[in-house]
Amino acid sequence: MIATLMAFCWMMPNSDAFAQGGRAIIRDAEIEGIIRAYLSPILVAANLSPDSVQVRLIQNDSLNAFVSGGRKIYIHTGLLTSSKGPDAVIGVLAHETGHIDGGHLSRTRAAIEDASMVQLLGTILGTVAAVGSKNAEAGQALILGSQSTARNIFLKYSRTQESAADQAAIRLLEATGRSTRGLEEFLSQLGDQEILSTQLQDPYAQTHPLSRERIDTLRAHIAQSPYSDTPPSQEDVYAHAIMVAKLKAFINPLRQTLLDYPESDQSFPARYARVIGYYRDTQLKKALPLLDQLISEMPKNPYLMELKGQMLFEFARPDEALIAYQKSVELSPDEPLILMELARVELESGKPELLDSAISHYQKVHRLGAANSFSWQQLGIAYGRKGDMALSSLSMAEAEYRRGQLSNAEYHAGKAETLLKVGSREHLHAQDLLQAIKVVKARRAKRK
Predict the structure, then answer these.
(1) Which of 241, 261, 277, 422 could bridge to 269 as Cys pair (CB 3.0-4.6 Å)?
(2) 3-state helix, strand, coil in the chain (%, to 5)
(3) What gap in Å lies between CA 125 and CA 139, rounded to an integer?
């Protein structure tokens, strides 16, 4: 999709939007809000600020979740859509929080370095043996042996980490009065993965080495925990149903959506899924009336108005889309993704009288800590249309820097530095960017 920051979107890989192997990041305010609600009590129990950890979704059908970049939890959509209820998702979140709390990411780097050193040493010794003895087979045996040893070193360390994260998850779930059954059921679901070849295994089994001891530990805890039979709240169950319905409807074709959520199912999640399914199938005449019915039932739901704005905007009805987005922002004034959508519609309307509003909304997005390359680029366009080339250049410099386009970023930052008032906050911002570009360039040159 071209619209990279709509209500539910596929953000193309760049330096500030992580993607593995070209797999896209999905941003959705409602789904991220549900996951944040699940995760926040766990983070508080771990003495971590809920604002310090980000959650991102990767569009991928496999089961996986992992921590990267220090305090970012990435979850594959396949894990969410295959989960049987909120407890499984919450259990996985508790496990990943255990990795963050234990500082496992930095230690993993050290373990990789240790394993790599063993493999490198083995390769060197194997080469020396082959040359010195003129026996290639002896050298090859040493090299293969070092590779196996290095792999075992890393897997042993990784299994230790996983067990530690499980123990942390047990502690955090206990502290928040939640059952560990969801995590145990999820790991048991993957329990047979270890006998499969790596090509057939789900990524979770590869990145989180399983063992019978891990599952037995969870089951032993379930046998004695007073919370083992505590069901998830109806609110959490309902939120999970909405999250799964929304994901499936956006990802799957309409035919599959109607099989998963037939007309006979008149629950809110099912009707929500059908609205999205019809819209994704370009059947706006079917989708809009159904959506308006949901809005009439839940007039204070900002995500329904957000979806209406997205639908109308994508079907070239910008004036109506603007009204829908404005209503959505009224209902959720501090949700940065919705603010970005409203600002985009304001900017793309081409109406000069909406430029100040678009700029204000993008500035608020940045104050809320949700800036990315797209929002900076759009802000640069808005300033350019107003004739403020200094702030336009500064914004474009930020956008290019976040994309990793250092030459473009340096050009725009240099231009901004010459245009901005010396000593102003914006002038210092430009200078900071130029310094950051210099550092990154030096680092890249050193790697080469």
Answers:
(1) 241
(2) 70, 5, 25
(3) 8
CA-nearest of 292, 291, 342, 290 to 318 is: 342
State residue 67's pLDDT score. 86
Q: What mean pLDDT is reported for the chain?
A: 83
Lowest mean pLDDT among 182-196, 269-283, 313-327, 373-387: 182-196
Distance (Å, whole) CA 89 – CA 98: 14
Domain that holds residue 40: 8-104+161-224
State both tokens at 97. Answer: 């929080």
Q: How many domains does the chain have?
A: 1
pTM above 0.85, yes or no: no
Cα separation, 224 vs 247, whole angstroms = 36
Say yes or no to pLDDT of 180 above 70: yes
Assigned domain for 84 exists: yes
Which position has the token pair 């519609």? Answer: 345
Transcribe 408-431 into DSSP letters: HHHHHHHHHHHHSPTTSHHHHHHH
Task: Enumerate the β-bridge partners of residue 14.
Answer: 17
- CATH number of the domain at 47, please: 3.30.2010.10
